[in-house]
Design goal:
This protein is mainly beta and 75 residues long. The protein contains one helix and eight strands; from the N terminus they run E-E-E-H-E-E-E-E-E. The strands form two sheets. A four-stranded antiparallel beta sheet has the order 1-8-4-5, with no helix packed on it. Strands 2-3-7-6 form a four-stranded antiparallel beta sheet. Strand 2 and strand 3 (19-24) form a beta hairpin.
């Protein structure tokens, strides 16, 4: 599996006052095989069920507050 590491600073606030990460479909695929993991204080990753939204060729990962983590996906 491939991965993308992201940080709190990568999140942007959308019109619904949620935080989101934005990726192109060609970067991470359609989103059906995505795993979103949050980095814990202990340095481990925990899997979360973050909502995904799609628009045109974009995939948005939504959460109520920014966090450090990674996205796992199939190439």
């Amino acid at each position: 599996m491939a991965q993308i590491i992201f940080s709190k600073e990568d999140f942007t606030k959308n019109n619904e006052k949620e935080y989101q990460l934005e990726y192109n479909v060609n970067e991470i695929g359609e989103g059906s095989d995505l795993i979103v993991e949050r980095l814990t204080e202990k340095g481990d990753y925990e899997t979360i069920q973050a909502p995904l939204r799609r628009s045109n060729d974009k995939v948005f990962i939504i959460w109520d507050s920014p966090f450090n983590g990674r996205i796992l996906f199939d190439l």
